[in-house]
Amino acid sequence: MNSYDELLAAIMPSDGPTRDVLDPATGERIGTAPVHDAAALTEAITAAQEAQPGWAALSDQARRDMLMRVADAIEAAAEPLALLLSREQGKPLNGPNARFEVGACAAWLRATAATDLPVEVVVDDGTDYAELHYRPIGLVAAITPWNWPMMIAIWQIAPALRMGNAVVAKPSEHTPLSGLGLIAVMNEVLPEGVLQAICGDGELGAAMVADPAFGKIMFTGSTSTGQKIIAGSADTITRLTLELGGNDAGIVLPDVDPVAIAEDLFWGAFINTGQTCAALKRLYVHDDVYDQVVEALRGVASAMPMGIGTDENNVLGPLQNRMQWDVVDRLVEAAKADGGRVVLGGEPDRDAAGNFYPTTLIADLPADNALVVEEQFGPALPIVRYSDIDEAVAMANSLDVGLGASVWSGDRDRARDVAARLEAGTVWINSHGGVHPLIPFGGVKKSGYGLEFGVDGLKSLAVPQVING
């Protein structure tokens, strides 16, 4: 698919119920998405089940080679995919946004294909011998969010396919075209049936969760929806990997150079206009450098252009949907009412056509302010002052989520000591939110369970089998 129009034509529904998809930056209609029902879900499940045994019968190397070819197809269609993603999700083409996300899809596929998972000899003592193998689960449900609709889909689909499973994927109802476009490109290479797409809202997702055909459910999204998935999968005892809500803390120690860390702090918080599960969402800064860090952040943030994603100059875009805009607006207003000092932003244009919320920094907030303790998932960062590291660690650990965290210091050993005390699945030092296809990723507390990426991610998409003797 060499052009945007060709890609869009390939995914437009030819019959059945549909709904309009709008550009969150302009309100302009992009196209239509199908609205699937239970019968369509059954059809997708049946097709995937029929295709899965043949896919699993291929050698591991054959599947790995196929994923490499899929990566080639995504790269060949990179610009149309990025344009579709930008128009539907809102993220700009440039910066760590749409083109970056499409590139990450190809990179993750290649890393997933290149990762070795040899048979493990667990006992060989002359008397006993046992090997640990990993077999296909069968059918995997991939339920993906609207913030990184292509990249997170690949995080779920790639290891599932690599391990010999078939996949039924449901993109978010907010970004269905991005998911459909990506899967259409992948299906130019994959055998027919092994990767199916189904579109609908939470009701359709609930039907997927309850269906005993699925041996594994992968979900990235809110904690509240994750809790429903856990409950809904109880009868079938379906395996789960859940990457749920976060409210990542960053702790800045007094030995930093505020100017040197300011841009990394900014992108840790504002990548994808703050719409990232593992973004930096609350920043605790030591008294000694508090004012300097706030000012350095203001300088960086004020220089980052926000606007329509297809404008090559922009690096920040709108919020993807009005529901999320309302969340950010409510929390910023609560921060202002609580005496927070607005360093930047905080005054949206409420009459604008798009879902734009200005880049916002709010300082001098109490630790229990709503903007601090609730996940904003948007371009508003609360900054809290502290004077004692034990106090900062206690504040960072005080919430019931723990996806990621970061420590900022000129002394790496000191930073690691603080990192070891934080209750988070990943703690970054002098950066925030970066992920790597070979480094395991997952949360603690109500941020979910299960690991993605690398060897651990492959194992999570398979059934362990011990051959003893």
UniProtKB/TrEMBL annotation:
It comes from the Bacteria. GO terms for molecular function: aldehyde dehydrogenase (NAD+) activity. Gene3D superfamilies: Aldehyde Dehydrogenase, Chain A, domain 1, Aldehyde Dehydrogenase, Chain A, domain 2. It is an enzyme of class 1 (oxidoreductase). Keywords: Oxidoreductase. PROSITE patterns: ALDEHYDE_DEHYDR_CYS, ALDEHYDE_DEHYDR_GLU. Its EC number is 1.2.1.3. InterPro entries: Ald_DH/histidinol_DH, Ald_DH_C, Ald_DH_CS_CYS, Ald_DH_CS_GLU, Ald_DH_N, Aldehyde_DH_dom, LUC3-like. CDD domains: ALDH_AldA-AAD23400. Residues 14-461 form the Aldehyde dehydrogenase domain. The active site is at 243. Pfam families: Aldedh. Belongs to the aldehyde dehydrogenase family. This is Aldehyde dehydrogenase. It comes from Microbacterium esteraromaticum.
